[in-house]
Amino acid sequence: METVRIPESEKQALMALIPTDAAQRVEIGTLGPQGTSSEHIARLLLRCVGDPGSCRIVLKDTFEQCMDALVGGRLDLALVPHAYSHINAFYMHPGLEPVSVFHGSTPEYGLAARTDFSFHEELLSTEIVATHPAPVPMLRHHFDRPVKLATVSSTSQAAGHVASGRYNIALTNEQAVEQYNLKFVYRFFRIPMTWTVFSRRKDLNDRRSA
Fold it and tell me: What share of the chain is helix, strand, coil (3-state, %, to 5)?
């Protein structure tokens, strides 16, 4: 079941940053391209906090780009999963602050291949699996053999590389599988995860003068 669980206090804090004026739109950045778990959660989140039309999801190639755009005022908010290994850079940045922390489960993850590719588990000894670094531990828990990896910037990009023929197997999510017309050859599970929405720190000058 697709769920986002956001405490009422966290929801209210986020809604306070979304204008009621239809002429204004808040831009929330997260990891792209289309088909990432981050994009999936961003869409679910916006449905939870009000009219999705009041916000626009902006997909960036990396979370570092999200942070740079947020600091530079080119984004209003940034959505970051706690599985991102460098999320501390967001928390430690003096110009940013967390607005809301909530729970959101990803789409189902698994190994995917093109529909004409014949998969069997022994191929994991020879084939390279395209994957984002974050879900790599899934392979260690499900297979008792080392797996050759090609790390990429997102689960969606991993699926895209398989669709283009660059690799034969990707560790990716259900949303990307559908987008790139792949098939799951081995299913894992949805990943229950926590997320933070960041904004620019509006009281920075007050804190410096305190």
Answer: 35, 35, 35
